[in-house]
Amino acid sequence: MTLRRGNLGGNLAEMAESFSSPELDRLFDEGRERTFSTGEHLITEGASTEYFYDILDGTVALARNGSDGRRQILAFLSARQFLGVASTARYPNLATALTPVTAISYSRSALERALNTTPGFASKFRIALTLILESSHDHIYTIGQRSAVERVASFLLYLRANQARFAAEGPREKSEHVELPMTRLDIADFLGVTIETVSRAFSYLKRRGIVSFTDSHSCELIKMDRIRELGGRDDFTQHRGA
Amino acid sequence: MTLRRGNLGGNLAEMAESFSSPELDRLFDEGRERTFSTGEHLITEGASTEYFYDILDGTVALARNGSDGRRQILAFLSARQFLGVASTARYPNLATALTPVTAISYSRSALERALNTTPGFASKFRIALTLILESSHDHIYTIGQRSAVERVASFLLYLRANQARFAAEGPREKSEHVELPMTRLDIADFLGVTIETVSRAFSYLKRRGIVSFTDSHSCELIKMDRIRELGGRDDFTQHRGA
DNA sequence: CGATATTTTGAAATAATTCAAAGGCAGTGG
DNA sequence: CCACTGCCTTTGAATTATTTCAAAATATCG
Predict the structure, then answer these.
(1) Which residue is nearest nucleotide C5, judged by alpha carbon to C1' distance?
(2) pLDDT digits (tens, 9 = 90+) for B137-176
């Protein structure tokens, strides 16, 4: 007898590891590994919320679009994070692959059934949901209270925390190296400022020797203490998707 | 035999109505009605998350405070909303009564036990959590993308939606009358602007005949269509606490 | 290597903040 | 009941952070 739920892996399967039920087996049986190329949508706005994703690799931007063309990125999701939490049949957000993405798709109804029959699993899932909420609260604090340079500093801490906690190989030590797979526009739409402001904030941090860039998408955090002073708490609340 | 869980009422009890388990009985047995006077804290920052509240009456501000004195209000909570969702033993937010508040306090451990033994109840609770998350996402969009006047307009829609949906007597029709139990400073800290900016935004809306005030804490929404144009979607996602 | 998109930098414009003062309201005590 | 006190709100003027507009520099991709 093979351990079905091990064959694709992923964070959801790990969360379910110590539990057992036919519905859980069914859920992981139905899980399918899917790949998305850069720019492809995992979920489109207003689409029915048929699937729930567990990201294995790559980065996804979760965004809410205004009718007038404005866009707010709600989260950058990468390995070990979830995508597709919704209260209604229609999902109000747009999820776009920023890099090639690999994810496991689960049927929402199978997930619901597994949660409703496996309380221990549901409990872990509830904690994951709460972490996502707490991360949103951090985000609200950041865009509500911090200046442009502070927002960019806190963004670097946000990425660093996620890259460490949700590394594909599992949680690891935080490093001083941060990859920025998204464009300046994506960062701007996440932080509620313009591209130019993001660029100027990076230039300011470079000029002061606080960070250094090899190219515009990989950054070394030189003066961590200064970054923490600017960007807030030690680090952001860990979270597991949205 | 009396129906225990009916004796205090509240939204949590309503959510549990159609389910039955000893742990659920225990939870509602342990629920205690508590009152808080204006300015009192229901939960203090860093305190252990021993209690979970179901608000019956009054308004609570849920805030995150920065070490440098900045404050971001994450939500205004009133009747039928929950307070005290946390992933860790320590709660990072401060919950303050803005008016006299009546709430039912439940022990967190009893809540956990009830959720872990009553899947149908856990399912409803998960939906409530998801609604809170979606409301946070609306909030992020508002402070990340909208101008000051737009933020204030969307704030009025937010209050109106909550006052209708979470009225103590149960959901009712939305009215054109909105009560603002909080100060201008509270509104400012919710929207990520200053008191003066909030005040000027209200003045602008008054000057244009879009809203009208009898006193500074009760507002009539005159031109709903204009308010919706400014404040975004039809209305905000309903939510049930934080 | 050339063409296109992204990022950076500069200068001018603007929305929001800061600083300052006046107006309104609520509660207290004479 | 009225005056006084303190707090909250509104309005005004000056300042500033961020945006907008514009162009140059750099990176990316076929």
Answers:
(1) A183
(2) 999 999 999 999 999 999 999 999 988 665 555 555 566 8
